[in-house]
Specification:
Blueprint: E1 9-10, E2 16-19, H1 35-50, E3 56-64, E4 72-82, E5 86-95, E6 98-108, E7 136-137, H2 148-151, E8 152-158, E9 166-172, H3 184-192, H4 195-198, E10 207-211, E11 213-218, E12 227-235, E13 240-249, E14 252-265
Antiparallel strand pairs: 1-2, 2-4, 3-6, 3-11, 4-5, 5-6, 7-8, 8-9, 9-12, 10-14, 11-14, 12-13, 13-14
Length: about 280
Amino acid sequence: MTLPRTCAYTSSDGRLFHASGLTRGPWHPDHQHAGPPSALVCRAIERLAASEGLSHLGRLTGNLLRPVPIGECRVEVAADYIGRNAGHYSARLVADGKEVARFTALMQREDDLPVPAGTADHPLPRPPKPVSESPLCRMPFPGLDTGYGDLVENRVAEGRFFDGPCTAWFRLRHPLVDGEQPSPYQRVAVAADSGNGISAALDFRRYSFVNCDLTVNLLRRPVGEWICLQARSAFGGNGCGMAESALYDETGLIGRATQTLAVRLREAPPSAVPRGAGGSERSR
């Protein structure tokens, strides 16, 4: 089924979702980037939690069990425990009759409680460079016609894509779900899974460094369309590694994201990927 390239997902019944090519990731042309499906699960959890008055996503953890195919998928979500201040939720992402990812989330009840003046280490840090001073850059995924790099708009604030520590802004160019405005938390989920990509220190032509999970912790509701990742990757020399990202909106720090990486030599190297791609708009 070919879908118009105007949204990440469409749904006729609100249960089954059809992924478009805008969800395509860098590792395989038939597999989704983990950001959009994580945001789709986030959407389902937010909707269920709202009925209990729980409005802040404090944590989202996704265990990525299998590649998520570009096609039909279903989200199943359940409330595990609802307390006075927080609710614990679990969710499954199912595609082709298989569970491809499993999630847990903590939703919190918000209160108007300003931070007292003079509190140590506050106000929180601001992003390293504003969006207006960060040059436009396109993610150069090799051999892909349409994909995640078209779903999002990027601006690089520090470093260069795929060349070590990097800070980049993300904004959705298209809706997550057709006819809907994505929530601030969904915008974060779409972007946060890219930490290991933008801060890649290994040669993409020789190595894969796919993340096995994603955890996002947020201290407040993000503001605006732009989400910034200040990311770096580290490797243990044993086929394992991790990526960590400080997360910002345009007003300051909002949280952190971590990913556990499986590092492997490629059996069949893909076409060349520009090293250090960044700083300006690039054609494919």
